[in-house]
Design brief:
Elements (H helix, E strand, L loop, with lengths): L1 H29 L2 H9 L3 H11 L1 H37 L4 H34 L1 H18 L1 H17 L14 H14 L4 H12 L5 H4 L1 E2 L6 E2 L4 H11 L1 E7 L6 E6 H5 L11 H4 L5 E3 L4 H10 L3 E5 L5 E6 H9 L15 E6 L2 E7 L22 H9 L8 E4 L2 E9 L2 E9 L31 E3 L5 E3 L8 E3 L6 E3 L13 E2 L2 E2 L33
Parallel strand pairs: 2-3, 5-6
Antiparallel strand pairs: 1-7, 3-4, 3-17, 6-7, 8-9, 9-12, 10-11, 11-12, 13-14, 15-16, 17-18
Pfam family, one: CNNM
Protein name: Secreted protein
Membrane topology: Multi-pass membrane protein
């Protein structure tokens, strides 16, 4: 009885050793190289051993396979006969005949040994390594490195034989595993390099944006419907010129009866090509070009291809066939390089404008259209939800339409609504309430984006619009491009003539897309042009009039 127990004890130790080699194999395969290199750079000696093991990963994996094979064979040699011997007594007590007793004891012993080996020696260490790759790799790298060095001749000989067999099959074996990194590893590496000073911050930001571009769709980069300027097909070439003068934009969607019925796209140059004496008689329906229509789920990369090959502006269509917004080539470029400015852009508020401290606590003023993921720069990690912008986050937290002065809280933060426009939070103040929250943004605010200016005075029917050069010019009294938008995106009602409700407007400016600001109107609705209100952009253009 003593010998079988000793054999089982030895077998259990070997099962643990088998689990060690399995953990080493999965730990080295699943660990992120960039994460290990970062820990090693911070002085973690075990992480340095992991990095060294990753440099010769193929050899290390061969060592783990050798260890797994040896321990598994020895466990079978020790555990199965020992268990069979221990099981003979209980099985004999059942009154089984001698001819059946021995074979049954061997079978049951083999099943028990295999089950214990599989659970403790295989599955548990595998699941542990997959769940905590760096932790496991740090734990096993040192002993595994020693084992591989001790058995280097055996491992090298086995590798040589295996390589010859692979070549006989017509495949050239690789000495090391492919060193391709995942996008997450590349992002982590770029940020670490920027922090270490080996990579310029602007270059690192461009690199990260480029990698993230594949996750975006047309819906993420478009200008939303409620901020789109459009012309009815019955409008004239003169209306195109007037609308360009008022907004600084050069391309406009053309609709038939309502904004969901886009029939074309008109450019300023097409209107200017019409003789002056014919502009009041030439409708935009005659000079408009066929529109580029794309679904809102279209990934940005194929969208970029279409914009480059067809037109630099496209109409985004939602799943119900309605107009969701417009997207331009410049919108996508700005996802990579940041805000692109020209002579038609006014000064912008920084997307994370530093505000005066409240009760000694740091504060920031942000535009409601700012994407919530940008808030991570100041340490605010918004919870997952059915929203993409700060305005959507506030509405979700409040559970109602926000009003000026509304406050809501997130862990470590207070959100205060400073300004409301068209039923959504236009400006929001973020105040840090937990000093332990880490800020990832630079101590100085980012480069300015938009500077608030006084709103244009209200006037009947047609609002005063500023020309691109900065001087004010009266808009036509009855422009077929005026629109009213009902509360909330996607519910606009397009009217053929100017109405007191004002219009939410966006199109492409001369040389790109731009926001034009708000035009005050009697009913209080504001016209906002360009990218200012779309989720991907920040800076409230609703407070500026060019």
């Amino acid at each position: 009885m003593t010998i079988p127990l000793l054999l089982l004890a030895a077998a259990f130790v070997l099962i643990l050793a088998n689990g060690f080699f399995v953990a080493a194999e999965f730990g080295l395969v699943t660990v992120e190289r960039a994460e290990a290199e970062k820990a090693a750079a911070e002085g973690d000696r075990r992480a340095r051993t992991v990095v060294e093991a990753l440099k010769q990963l193929s050899f290390q994996l061969s060592g783990t396979q050798l260890g797994i094979t040896i321990t598994s064979l020895v466990v079978g040699m020790l555990a199965e006969p020992a268990l069979a011997e221990l099981l003979r007594g209980p099985l004999a007590a059942l009154g089984l005949p001698e001819g059946v007793l021995s074979p049954l004891a061997v079978v049951v012993g083999m099943l028990l040994a295999s089950a214990i080996q599989m659970v403790i020696g295989e599955l548990v260490p595998k699941n542990w390594a997959v769940s905590r790759p760096l932790q496991v790799a740090r734990f096993v790298a040192g002993p595994q490195h020693v084992f591989a060095r001790l058995f280097r001749p055996v491992i090298s000989a086995l590798n040589t034989v295996a390589n010859r067999l692979v070549r006989a099959l017509g495949v050239e074996p690789a000495e090391e595993l492919a060193s391709a990194r995942t996008p997450g590893e590349l992002v982590s590496l770029a940020r670490h390099s920027a922090q270490a000073g080996t990579l310029e911050q602007d270059t690192a930001d461009l690199f990260v944006r480029t990698l993230s571009l594949g996750d975006l769709t047309a819906q993420h980069v478009m200008t939303p419907r409620v901020k789109v300027s459009a012309l009815q097909s019955s409008a004239t070439a003169e209306d195109v010129v007037n609308l360009t003068r008022a907004t600084g934009l050069s391309r406009f969607p053309v609709y038939r009866e309502k904004i969901d019925e886009i029939v074309g796209m008109v450019h300023l140059k097409d209107a200017l090509a019409v003789p002056v004496h014919d502009r009041l008689r030439t409708t935009v329906g005659r000079i408009a070009q066929p529109p580029v229509l794309v679904p809102e789920t279209l990934p940005v990369r194929p969208l970029l291809t279409r914009l480059r090959s067809e037109q630099p502006i496209a109409v985004v269509v939602d799943e119900y066939g309605g107009t969701a917004g417009v997207v331009t080539l410049e919108d996508i470029v700005e996802e990579l390089v940041g805000e692109v400015r020209d002579e038609h852009d006014g000064l912008d508020l920084p997307e994370l404008a530093v505000a005066p401290p409240e009760d000694g606590r740091p504060s920031w003023d942000v535009d409601g259209g700012l994407r919530v993921d940008v808030l991570r720069r100041i340490g605010l990690d918004a919870p997952e939800g059915p929203y993409e912008t700060v305005a959507g986050l506030v509405a979700d937290l409040l559970g109602r339409i926000p009003a000026p002065g509304d406050r809501t809280d997130l862990p470590g933060w207070r959100l205060t609504v400073r300004q409301v426009d068209h039923y959504h939070a236009e400006r929001v103040r973020l105040t840090r309430t937990d000093p332990a929250v880490e800020t990832h943004a630079a101590s100085s605010p980012p480069a300015p984006r938009t500077a608030p200016a006084a709103s244009a005075p209200a006037r009947p029917a047609a609002a005063q619009a500023s020309a691109p050069g900065g001087s004010s010019a009266p808009a036509p009294a009855a422009a077929p491009w005026s629109m009213t938008a009902a509360p909330g995106p996607g519910t606009g009602t397009v009217l053929p003539h100017a109405v007191p409700g004002g219009a939410a407007q966006t199109a492409e400016r001369r040389g790109g897309t731009a926001a034009t600001g708000r035009e005050a109107v009697p009913d209080g609705d504001a016209d906002t042009s360009g990218r200012a209100g779309r989720p991907a952009r920040s800076g409230s253009q609703a407070e500026a009039v060019r």
